[in-house]
Amino acid sequence: MNTQELSNLLCSQLCATAKVAEWKSGVWRIQTPFLFPDGDSYVLYIQQLPSGKFRLSDMGNSLMRLSYESDIQKLRDGTRARLLEQILAGSDVQEDEGEFYVETSLNEIGGSIFQMGQALTRVHDLSFLERVRSENTFYDDLRSLLHGCLKADQLHENYIVPEIPCAKDYPVDYHISGGDLPVYLFGVPNKDKAQLTTIILQYLNSAQCRFTSMVVFQDMEKLSRPVVSRLTNAANDQIASLDAEQDLRRKINQKIVSIR
Known about the structure:
Blueprint: H1 3-16, E1 19-24, E2 27-35, E3 41-48, E4 54-57, H2 61-67, H3 78-89, E5 94-96, E6 99-104, H4 109-125, H5 128-131, H6 135-149, E7 155-159, E8 172-176, E9 183-188, H7 191-206, E10 212-217, H8 225-234, E11 237-239, H9 245-255
Parallel strand pairs: 9-10, 10-11
Antiparallel strand pairs: 1-2, 2-3, 3-4, 4-6, 5-6, 7-8, 8-9
Helix pairs in contact: 7-8
């Protein structure tokens, strides 16, 4: 087989995986070789613009599919929003109210289809952050959960405890007010944060501060037993995983009278 024969073979096989049909007047539907995890093909739509260029669009189907298994509003905030911006910035793909599209010429339609497929695959991969939470999104999700169950004036982020020596060296993730004692809550996604939180709590206890503490792990089972033991000995309460949302609400409610 020579180069031309191989090229012809690849072209014929790749072309066979893309199916084109007229969807409505002036708009064509393209079934691409790219697949969603459930086996369905990515479907794109193409129409000619008054400028003579062509608009290749997913008609909003990608985010609609994501909404079946994820809260797509989370794509607009925090780490997920930054990741989405990076995906779009790394390609010619744009977004308009949930619709992903690219403007292209007739000669570049093939390459644009592959570009759209790559970008939409990366967008869809953001849904895995719902199932396998990264350390970056852990803090976003903890913040969102706390704001959802507490009033704005009850929650104080990056709190510096007053009237103790070197207070700025021992910050508290969240100070929750409204109970008999202030609640100092810490998010713990990894070993380093677990050790730091242990040091902070031990220091606050030695300074005879009046408070009760709570630790929310990303996944307590992934940390070594000595690390967890030292931290749980220093803390008053703990949540083994951020997925245990009802347990977190219940334990906050036990300490705080007014909770949503």
